[in-house]
Amino acid sequence: MARTPHVVVCVKQVPDTTEIRIDPKTGTLQRAGIPSVLNPYDVPALEEALRLKDRFGVRVTAITMGPPQAKEALQRCVAYGADEAVLLTDRIMAGADTLATTYALWRALVKLDAEHPIDLVICGKQTIDGDTGQVGPGIAHRLGFQQLTYVIRLREIDFDRRTIEVERVTETAREVLRSRLPAVLTVVKEINKPRYASLPNLIRATRYEPIVWNGQNTDLDPNLCGLKGSPTIVSKTFAPPPRDHQCEMIAAADLDQVANRVVDAVLDHPVIRRLREAPAVAGVAREAAPAAVRGSGG
Ligand SMILES: Cc1cc2nc3c(=O)[nH]c(=O)nc-3n(C[C@H](O)[C@H](O)[C@H](O)COP(=O)(O)OP(=O)(O)OC[C@H]3O[C@@H](n4cnc5c(N)ncnc54)[C@H](O)[C@@H]3O)c2cc1C
Fold this sequence. Notes:
Shape: globular
Strand content: 15-25%
Bound molecules: flavin-adenine dinucleotide
Number of helices: 8
Order of helices and strands: EEEHEHEHEHEEEEHEHHH
Structural class: alpha/beta
Radius of gyration: 25 Å
């Protein structure tokens, strides 16, 4: 291939999950001043791109749409070994849902493709905050690229013949898919074991300034960005009520006694009691329960 193949990795900076705060007015996540991390699902996505760099010398670009402080997530990518990084940031993109996010990323990828033709886009399976899993397929659709999701192994890739073969996981099976480049992959965490950042790359990352693009130089329509371009309305946000877990330690001389106490506790549980009172099951429940617990070595 005359030109260097180009692999782009989409990454997102996400709040460190122990510090989630929601803006009560807009219903969107408060990001300023909250410790943030590189989305854990995006680290193996980047690693897969770096392995293609090791094998084929591809060019690796990391891109993120986010607030100015998302620059740190891109510097992390450079520390791992990315060649370039693009920060797509503009107030018009704030509060974007997945439709508006894929629109903005699509425009930026079109601009990047014009500069260095893109052969492969790699995304994580999901983020740990929005975790819709919609961005990868949304980008593929808008770019008109093939999409291969939940990829657990990149079996073969041929940049000259424009072919790719992957193994993907479904709920019940593994599938082997063969497709054409350019393509968008979404990868699961188990696809690889990410490398550690090397010292030279760590030093490079501390001084690295990402390329910064905004709504203007990516030709974005403000009506399709951010809250304005988001059909998803967050009507209410609230923390789910804490569950009251009760725990009782059962001390008894022998297992049979423990089993009996467990059976009694199960049969006495409000849900089971309501079930047992239901005419249909009353007879059955009384017979079956003790045997079931013993059977399971409980
Ligand atoms: C708690 C919460 C709930 C939300 N619920 C919804 C909802 O129901 N519907 C909705 O449309 N939006 C929702 N959003 C907004 C949504 O998070 C944003 O649109 C976000 O930018 C993309 O969606 P995601 O986080 O679900 O990404 P996912 O689709 O889960 O991300 C998959 C992959 O896409 C790439 N990616 C994702 N975001 C970016 C980015 N900003 N820059 C570069 N690459 C990226 C990464 O590779 C990532 O691994 C929610 C946000 C929060 C915080």
